[in-house]
TrEMBL record:
InterPro entries for this protein: FCP1_dom (IPR004274), HAD-like_sf (IPR036412), HAD_sf (IPR023214)
Official protein name in the record: FCP1 homology domain-containing protein
Record Pfam families: NIF
Gene source species: marine sediment metagenome
Stretches assigned to the FCP1 homology domain: 1-79
Phylogenetic placement of the source organism: unclassified sequences, metagenomes, ecological metagenomes
């Protein structure tokens, strides 16, 4: 869900709690991260955002459309390393 007012597009994390109220009992905004290729989506939670490279697939290669989309895998590996070594 996006915030869209006066041509400002963002994804405030508080919206998650509005749409999924049970999350309040399980986590907090401080424990969340957002991963997106658009930094402006982090406008309301800049410390929670990780910017990744935009995915621009080769439309002529439909069979392997997602094979080169590795940004999330890189972030997952980095987070796992941070947990293990910190």
């Amino acid at each position: 869900h996006c915030y869209n007012k006066k041509k400002i597009f963002a994804k405030p994390l508080k919206f998650l709690f509005e749409f999924e109220p049970e999350l309040k009992n399980k986590t907090s905004i401080e424990q969340m991260i957002m991963i997106d290729d658009r930094e402006d989506n982090f406008k309301f939670n800049p410390k929670n955002g990780i910017v990744i490279k935009e995915y621009a697939p080769d439309p002529s290669n439909v069979e392997n459309l997602r094979a080169d989309d590795t940004e999330l895998l890189k972030i997952m590996e980095q987070l796992e390393n941070d947990i293990i070594y910190n």
